[in-house]
């Protein structure tokens, strides 16, 4: 980590953590889909605790939901403080990202389905569907509002 990755408070910039989250989620999406997957959206990222210089950060990613060519990946970051003995790592961030699997020509390709195997997986799958519904509804509402105000932009 370089000095530009840290703010004046001695904590890691959120953008640095966002890149880490995107990299980890991308690896999970690529492994699940069996090839290249690109970031289509970041639905949410929540910073729970600051990451300080020297902290050991762990990332956990899981494909929560799949459509025909897209998938949602959930990411959880935890940190172990370099200067303290904690009973367990501290949760520092959570995020939900959407990826699209693409072929060598850059066109969307089919992804294997997620098959929830326990109640936690079923909960993650259902929550991912809620986020997808909200994302699509928000996009439709914005497009409708833009169409209604198209005359204002001339």
How would you state the average pLDDT, rounded? Answer: 94
Rounded to the nearest angstrom, the radius of gyration is 18 Å
Number of beta strands:
4
Number of domains: 1
CATH architecture: Roll
CATH topology: Thiol Ester Dehydrase, Chain A
Model regions low in confidence, pLDDT < 50 over at least 5 residues: none
Coarse shape: globular
Major sheet size, sense and barrel closure: 4 strands, antiparallel
Structural class: alpha+beta
- Classify the beta-strand content into a percent band: 25-35%
Q: Strand order, biggest sheet?
A: 1-4-3-2
Individual helix count: 2
CATH level-4 homologous superfamily: Hotdog Thioesterase
CA(first)-CA(last) distance: 47 Å
List the helices and strands in order: HEEEEH
Helix content: 25-40%
Query: What is the top-level CATH class?
Result: Alpha Beta
Model description:
Helices cover 32% and strands 29% of the residues. The chain is built from 2 helices and 4 strands, in the order αββββα. Strands 1-4-3-2 form a 4-stranded antiparallel sheet.
Q: Topology, please?
A:
Layout: H1 14-33, E1 37-47, E2 56-66, E3 70-80, E4 90-101, H2 119-148
Antiparallel strand pairs: 1-4, 2-3, 3-4
Protein traits:
Thiol Ester Dehydrase, Chain A, single chain, 2 helices, 154 residues, four-stranded antiparallel beta sheet, alpha+beta
């Amino acid at each position: 980590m370089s000095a530009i990755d840290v703010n004046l408070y001695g904590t890691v910039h959120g953008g640095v953590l966002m890149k880490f989250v995107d990299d980890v989620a991308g690896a999970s999406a690529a492994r699940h889909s069996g090839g290249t997957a690109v970031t289509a959206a970041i639905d949410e990222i929540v910073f729970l605790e600051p990451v300080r210089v020297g902290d050991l950060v762990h990332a956990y990613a899981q494909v929560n939901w799949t459509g025909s060519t897209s998938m949602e990946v959930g990411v959880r970051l935890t940190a172990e403080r370099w200067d303290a003995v904690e009973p367990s790592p501290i949760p520092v961030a959570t995020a939900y990202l959407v990826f699209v699997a693409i072929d060598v020509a850059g066109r969307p390709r089919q992804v294997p389905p997620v098959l929830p195997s326990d109640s936690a997986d079923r909960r993650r799958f259902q929550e991912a569907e809620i986020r997808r519904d909200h994302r699509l509804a928000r996009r439709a509402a914005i497009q409708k509002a833009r169409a209604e105000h198209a005359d204002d932009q001339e």
